[in-house]
Design brief:
heterodimer; A: 592 residues; alpha/beta; Rossmann fold; 4 domains; 5-stranded mixed beta sheet; B: 213 residues; Arc Repressor Mutant, subunit A; 2 domains; 5 strands
C-alpha cells in the first residue's frame, strides 16, 4: 500500500452504538494512539453499526450500501473493526466499502476468528486469556495459601473454559489442595464460598448458566458469590473488576486499542503486518486487597491498581501544589514588600534625620536672630535682682533698717529669678535638639502663645505690635510641639522682617488660630508689610529663595517641610488691606 | 534750699527693674521718681527741678532716643544716663552725641550706677548755675537803654570810640559816657570781660553783624 500526496484515512467500525463502554473505550484508545503517532496528520472516521439494536439482515444490508456510497470518493486506507460483529460486517462488505484497504480486526480470541472464517488478508489484534498468569498473581499475593478452588458454570462455554483451565493449571495446581467447583446452583456456589479456608486461592472463570440452567451475566454471578466468600477470588476478565474479585491477568480495552492502532500504523507505513496478541495486563482492585489484608507490594510489576484510596497528596496534589505556589508567591511578595518597606523606612528615617538636623539649624538661627531681645529679657530680671540685693544691703547697714521693705525686696528677687529662669527655659525649648520626633498631642493655642512669649522682646525692640486671636475651643494637634513652634517663629520673624521699612505705628503682626473644618485647624500669621509680589507667592517656599538681603531663604522652606511632615499644608496670600498672610493647616487630632 | 534737692527720674517699662533701682537709689539717699513710659515722664515731671534721668533705651512707644530729643528742648538741665539690656555701639554713639551723660548696661553694679548718677547730678548743677548766671546777665542786659545797647554791640565788635561816634552820628565824649554806663550795668571790669559776656549771651556772631541790619 502506498499513500501519496495526502494524509491517510482510517475508518473505525464500532459494532454497537456509542453507549457501549467496552468498544467505545477501545475505539478511544485507537484514536488517541493514531493521533499521537501521526501528530494529528490523519483522517479518522467512525461508524457505529448499531447491530445490537438492529440485528436484522436488512439493516446490515442498508448500512453496507450506505457506507459504500458515503466513502465512494474517500476510500479508507485502513479499516479497524472492533468486536466480532464488526469483523463479520467488514469481511462481507470489504469489496464495496473499502477495496484495497487493509482490514484490522480486534477484540476477540484467535479461536473465535477461526469460527468467523475471516478472509486471509484480514489481520487480527486478538485477546487471549492465560489463566495461569492470573493464578501466578494470586500466588504472589498469597504465598501462604494451601488450597486452590476453580469455579465454573454449567453452560457449554463454561465447561469448555473449565477444560482449558484444567489443562493450563495442571502444573500449577500440584502445589495446592485443588478443587474444581462446577455443576452447582448459584446458592450452592454462595454457600461453598462461605466455607473456603482463609488460606485459599479462588479462580473464577465464567458462569453463564448454573446447574439449574438459569442464565447469568458471569460477573453478576461472581459478584453474588464474592459477597459471602471467605477467601479472595481472582478472575481473567477486566469486567470482573468492581464485582468482587481481587484482580487478574486481563486484556484491557486500552491495550486492545493500542495493538489495533499499531497494526494500522504499520499498514499505513507500508510495512508487512501479521496477527498480534494484545498484551495482557495485571489489574487489581485496591479495595479487595484491603479487604483480604493483601499487600500491593506483592503484586507483579506494572500491575494497574484500581480504586486505590488516593493518599492526601494523590487526591489533592493539584490543590496542594497550587496552594503551596500561592503561599510561596505570597511569601515572595511579602518578603519583597518587607524589604521594600525596610528600604523605604530607612529612607524615611534618613530624610527625617535630615529634617531634624535642618530644623535644629533653623532653631539655632532663630535663637541668634532673637539674641538681642533675649539678652534684654534676661538682663531685665538680672538687673532688678542685682539692684534689689544692693538696696537691701544698704538698708541693712542703716541705723533702723526697714525690715518690711527687706522682706518685699526678697520676694521680688525670687520673682525675678523665676522670670530669668522662664526666659532660659524658653530658650532651651527653642534650642532643643531632637534625635527623633517627639510625638505628642497639644493645643495649638498653647504653642501660639508660647511663640508669642518668645517673640515679645524682639517685637518690642522692633516696634512691632503683636496681637493674637485664639479660637475659643481647644485645637488638639498631634506633632512635635517644638517643631510647630518653630513654624510659627519662622512665619512671625518673616512677617516682622517684611515690616522693617514701614512706619512705626503701622507695624502689626497678628496670629490667629481657628477650626476651619471638622477635621482641620488653621493658624495664620498676618503682617502689615509690603506683601509678596503675586508671582513670588509660590516660590517663596523654595529653599534658598529669599528677597531679604540677610535672609538665608530657609525659614519658609523649613516651615513647609515641617508642616508637610505632620500632614499639613502651608501657603501665602496677600491681604486686600495690605500686607501678607501665611496660613498653616494641620489635621485635628481625633481624640480632641 | 530744700526745693532744689535733685530728683533721680527712672524711666523703664519693666516695673520690677525700675522698682529695684528706685529702692537702691532711695536707700542711697536720693529722691527718686518712677515712670513706666516716656510719655508719662513728659507729662508728669516738673520742668525746672534739678535732677537726672535714668532712661531705658528700649522703651516701647516713645523710644529712649526720641525722649532724649524732646527733653533737650523741654528740660535741658536734666542730664540723661541711658540704661540698656542690650549693648549696641551704634545706638550708644548716637545717644552720647545727643548729649547723654553716660551709657550703662544692665545689670549695673551699684558703684557704677551711683557714680553715673552723681556725675549726672553734678552736670545738672553746673548747667543750673550757668543758667542762673545767664539769667542774671540777661536781666542786666535788659537795664541798658537802646542807645547803650547799640554802643555795647559796637564795643564787642572791637570798634574804637571815634568809629562808634561816627557811626552813631554823635560825639566821642558821649560814646565814652555810654561805654562807662554799659560796663557798669553789666558788671564788667574790662573790655575783655564785656566781650565774654556778649559771647555767653550769644550776641557775637562771626557770620552776622547785628549792627548792619
Amino acid at each position: 500500500m502506498e499513500i501519496v500526496g495526502r494524509i491517510p484515512r482510517v475508518l473505525i467500525l464500532y459494532p454497537y452504538d456509542e453507549r457501549i463502554a467496552a468498544t467505545t473505550a477501545a475505539g478511544e484508545a485507537v484514536r488517541t494512539r493514531l493521533l499521537d503517532a501521526t501528530n494529528g496528520k490523519i483522517d479518522l472516521f467512525s461508524e457505529f453499526l448499531d447491530l445490537s439494536r438492529f440485528p436484522e439482515t436488512k439493516h446490515v444490508g442498508r448500512m453496507a450500501v450506505y457506507l459504500s456510497a458515503k466513502y465512494a470518493d474517500r476510500r479508507p486506507d485502513v479499516v479497524i473493526a472492533l468486536g466480532e460483529e464488526s469483523a463479520r460486517f467488514i469481511s462481507v462488505n470489504c469489496k464495496d466499502l473499502a477495496e484495497d484497504a487493509r482490514i484490522v480486526v480486534a477484540g476477540f480470541s484467535r479461536s473465535t476468528a477461526e469460527e468467523i472464517d475471516l478472509p486471509k488478508d484480514v489481520i487480527g489484534a486478538f485477546s487471549e486469556f492465560h489463566i495461569v498468569k492470573t493464578a501466578e498473581m494470586a500466588r504472589g499475593l498469597q504465598p501462604e495459601a494451601r488450597n486452590l478452588f476453580i469455579i465454573g458454570g454449567s453452560s457449554e462455554f463454561d465447561r469448555s473454559w473449565l477444560a482449558t483451565a484444567r489443562a493450563d493449571l495442571a502444573a500449577f495446581s500440584k502445589d495446592y489442595e485443588t478443587a474444581y467447583l462446577t455443576d452447582l446452583t448459584i446458592d450452592e456456589f454462595t454457600k461453598r464460598a462461605a466455607e473456603f479456608p482463609i488460606d485459599s486461592i479462588v479462580l473464577a472463570l465464567t458462569i453463564f448458566k448454573d446447574r439449574t440452567g438459569r442464565n447469568f451475566i458471569p460477573r453478576e454471578a461472581i459478584k453474588q458469590i464474592s459477597k459471602s466468600a471467605s477467601a479472595p477470588i481472582y478472575g481473567p476478565y477486566p469486567t470482573y473488576i468492581d464485582y468482587g474479585v481481587v484482580g487478574g491477568n486481563v486484556v484491557t480495552f486500552e491495550s486492545l486499542g493500542m495493538t489495533a492502532a499499531n497494526l494500522a500504523l504499520d499498514a499505513i507505513a507500508g510495512k508487512p503486518i501479521s496477527h498480534r496478541e494484545s498484551p495482557q495486563t495485571y489489574v487489581a482492585d485496591a479495595r479487595q486487597l484491603q479487604r483480604w489484608g493483601l499487600s500491593d507490594k506483592n503484586l507483579p510489576p506494572d500491575t494497574v491498581l484500581l480504586f486505590k484510596e488516593p493518599t492526601f497528596w494523590e487526591q489533592y496534589w493539584f490543590v496542594t501544589v497550587a496552594a503551596l505556589a500561592v503561599i510561596t508567591l505570597q511569601g515572595t511578595v511579602i518578603a519583597g514588600l518587607l524589604i521594600e518597606r525596610r528600604r523605604r523606612r530607612a529612607a524615611e528615617i534618613e530624610s527625617r534625620r535630615r529634617l531634624l538636623e535642618v530644623v535644629h539649624l533653623n532653631q539655632s538661627a532663630t535663637a541668634g536672630a532673637l539674641s538681642a531681645s533675649i539678652a534684654h529679657e534676661l538682663n531685665q530680671p538680672l538687673g532688678a535682682i542685682r539692684s534689689n540685693a544692693e538696696a537691701a544691703s544698704v538698708i541693712l547697714r542703716s541705723a533702723r533698717p526697714d525690715l518690711d521693705l527687706i522682706e518685699q525686696i526678697l520676694v521680688d528677687i525670687q520673682d525675678d529669678d523665676q522670670r530669668a529662669h522662664d526666659v532660659i527655659s524658653r530658650l532651651r525649648g527653642l534650642l532643643k535638639k531632637r534625635g527623633e520626633i517627639d510625638w505628642q498631642e497639644f493645643d495649638l493655642n498653647d504653642v501660639a502663645s508660647s511663640a508669642i512669649r518668645i517673640l515679645r522682646g524682639e517685637a518690642e525692640r522692633r516696634g512691632v505690635e503683636v496681637s493674637s486671636n485664639r479660637a475659643s475651643r481647644k485645637l488638639p494637634v498631634r506633632a512635635d510641639r517644638v517643631h510647630v513652634q518653630q513654624v510659627i517663629l519662622n512665619l512671625a520673624i518673616n512677617g516682622m522682617d517684611a515690616m522693617l521699612d514701614v512706619g512705626g505705628t503701622e507695624r502689626r503682626l497678628t496670629l490667629e488660630t481657628t477650626l476651619t473644618k471638622d477635621s482641620e485647624v488653621e493658624l495664620s500669621v498676618s503682617d502689615t508689610g509690603r506683601g509678596v509680589p503675586d508671582e513670588q507667592l509660590a516660590s517663596i517656599f523654595q529653599p534658598f529663595y529669599t528677597t531679604k538681603p540677610t535672609g538665608t531663604g530657609l525659614g519658609l522652606s523649613i516651615a513647609r517641610a515641617i508642616v508637610e511632615t505632620y500632614g499639613g499644608k502651608i501657603w501665602a496670600a496677600n491681604r486686600p488691606e495690605g500686607g501678607a498672610v501665611f496660613r498653616v493647616v494641620l489635621p485635628l487630632a481625633r481624640t480632641g | 534750699m530744700k526745693q532744689l534737692e535733685p530728683v533721680v527720674h527712672i524711666v523703664d517699662d519693666d516695673q520690677s527693674f525700675r522698682t529695684a533701682v528706685g529702692r537702691l537709689l532711695s536707700a542711697s539717699g536720693y529722691r527718686v521718681s518712677l515712670y513706666e513710659s516716656g510719655d508719662q515722664f513728659l507729662t508728669q515731671s516738673p520742668d525746672a527741678e534739678p535732677g537726672c534721668v535714668l532712661l531705658d533705651l528700649g522703651l516701647p512707644g516713645l523710644s529712649g532716643l526720641e525722649l532724649q530729643a524732646r527733653l533737650a528742648e523741654k528740660a535741658p538741665l536734666l542730664a540723661i544716663v541711658f540704661l540698656t539690656g542690650q549693648g549696641d555701639v551704634r545706638t550708644s554713639v548716637q545717644a552720647m552725641k545727643a548729649g547723654a551723660e553716660d551709657f550703662l548696661e544692665k545689670p549695673t553694679p551699684r558703684d557704677a550706677l551711683l557714680e553715673a548718677v552723681e556725675r549726672a547730678l553734678r552736670r545738672c548743677e553746673t548747667r543750673r548755675l550757668e543758667q542762673g548766671r545767664l539769667h542774671a546777665l540777661r536781666r542786666r542786659l535788659a537795664n541798658l537803654t537802646p542807645r547803650e545797647f547799640e554802643v555795647f554791640g559796637l564795643i564787642v565788635r572791637g570798634k574804637l570810640n571815634k568809629q562808634i561816634a561816627h557811626a552813631l552820628g554823635t560825639s566821642e565824649r558821649t560814646v565814652k559816657a555810654h561805654r562807662h554806663n554799659v560796663m557798669e550795668k553789666l558788671g564788667a571790669g574790662s573790655l575783655a570781660e564785656t566781650v565774654s559776656i556778649a559771647e555767653r549771651l550769644g550776641l557775637v556772631d562771626a557770620t552776622a553783624d547785628p549792627l548792619r541790619r
